[in-house]
Amino acid sequence: MKLPHLILPLVPILFFFFFFLILFASPAAEAADALSQNCGKTGNYSANSTYEANLRTLFTDLRKNATNSSANFGFAKTSVGTTPNLVSGLVLCRGDVNFTACSSCLNQATQDIQNLCLYDKEATIYYDYCLLRYSNQNFLSSTDNSVDIILYNAHNVSVSFTLFGNRVDYLMNSTANYAAFNDSKKFGTSQMNSTDSFPVIMGLAQCTPDMSGTDCNLCLQNLIGMMPQYFNGTRGGRILGVRCNIRYEVYSFYSGAALLTVTAPAAPAPAPSLAPRVTNPPSEGKKKTSTGTILAITVPLVLAFVVIAGLCVCFLKRRKSGLTKPLLNVSNPEEIKNVESLLLDLSVLRVATTDFAEENKLGEGGFGAVYKGVLPDGREIAVKRLSQSSNQGMGELKNELLLVAKLQHKNLVRLLGVCLEEQEKLLIYEYVPNKSLDQILFDTKKRHLLDWGIRYKIISGIARGLLYLHEDSQLRIIHRDLKASNILLDVDMDPKISDFGLARLFGGDQTQEVTNRVVGTFGYMAPEYAMLGHFSVKSDVFSYGVLVLEIITGKKNSATFENDQTEDLLSFVWQHWTNGTITEVADPFLDQHYPRSELLRCTQIALLCVQDNPADRPIMSDVAVMLSSETVSLETPSKPAFCITKSSIRAGSFSSGFINIGGNTDRSSTKSVPVSPNEVSISDMEPRNNS
Hints:
Radius of gyration: 31 Å
CATH class of the largest domain: Mainly Alpha
Low-confidence stretches: 1-8, 11-32, 268-289, 315-331, 503-519, 559-565, 643-691
Helix content: 25-40%
Strand order of the largest sheet: 6-9-10-8-7-11
């Protein structure tokens, strides 16, 4: 019989078939990418302080203890120092990762968390392979899970949502039970095979190993109970907390074989078999299949398997690179490789905003309107609908989007995604519920919400945000339109700087409504910027000083007083400073409930920021140190620069939208610089010079 010789030509096909199967069954390990971070609310520490030194020691101890060869490999918790400089920490690597992956993830975590949560006394950061948490409060004996992140696959299964959900629930309960009571590391992986049309489901559950079996199971059950609310019919989902976490997918996402195999309950109606039906058994004389028949069956099947396996591999890689990412939750700048990782369908945004209904409109600026939206999982977003008048090329626009998206800081409004469909240019931001600072600070009915503690937090937060833009981000960002309406307040009244970098999304000549010639807002512009068009980080420092004085006094820098004969805000504060009556400038709504030393210090810092000569103004790193330490001595301010107000225009200092140097109205003898009161920002982005 010559059958082996006939099969020999099939060897290359079989080789590729098994090659694809290996790829499909064993996807390459992913790098440890940050999923989310929470910077806490327990205060800030100073640079080069004892707390910072203790924190660095903590990171070293945690990495060392978590990667030793003990039974609790991948887990460590400890405390360093004593109150008030006590810092406690905990790290946990996923139970299936090896030494290299665990160590690499923890190294990245300790670096990223210090950049993303600069000077915060408490922070948590999550990755695929590990998590890290530290705090100035001793949380190590608590089993509070502090759920910080819920992620889900943006696509649904093609079977019954109810039946699929029941199977996922059954699988995850079995996995939780295994992790809690059958594994010393409190870790479990599972697989539910299926003989019907339902997909194979993979599960994972993990607790910190120091928890008892009962506490671990209770922690996991609480997470499982949340699943129906967020994961109805989705192909995958995960809930991450400090003490326990769960995840399921319809593909293999963990290393090695499942520790637990779960039998799926029978489906109501099994799918019809695709195998050929045999109605009559072959006779004894026909047991030997002819060579032609073997080839006729084998070759098409092998080719079909090769094609299917190849498609599955491509689909798997595409899904793992994009579809399984959390919807609008790109929190790690290094994860943003291209603009496609930020793209969101226009149909999703139309549903979220009720097709950009007028009742969902939050406001309108120079770049377009902003709408509130609600995603299917209940999360709220803000959608900025950019004007279609921009003539910038799509390629350049995408590059600028990537630059803006990679700017991540707790005091900057986060860009979550973009949409570039059907001539629409939409930016999706996190929704900040308390809107802008000016809507509270200058509203007599709401101003009482801003006690001194909150105002001081806002002053400090804005300083940290500007410091990041000026010195700590990948790019040097000069905002050029820092003002109260561009400071948004989150649910905890923490400030977030908005509209940084947006002008970079537009190029060439623009319309009057959206123009790249807009340079700022009256009252906030530094004199050298307003008069000569010269800008630098010091022009932002000037704007910051004006903003701080507004926060202290509760008065607008422009139109602060009832008539043009009354001095402007800077002169008003300076007069009281020289007279020794500075407490009289404090907002009456504070009702003298503030530490006098803090009020004086903030006022002095603000006056230093609004000095006429840019060289006399501090940089933002110095401002941050001044605010965080009472022991740092401050220089004595000189008389501040003049304040550009709308009354200056009426008095003749401005002509036809241009600043007139020297007040001469004869255009032939004047030097003009474009200026506009339009309330939008423009940012200068330059590559950071590391030399």
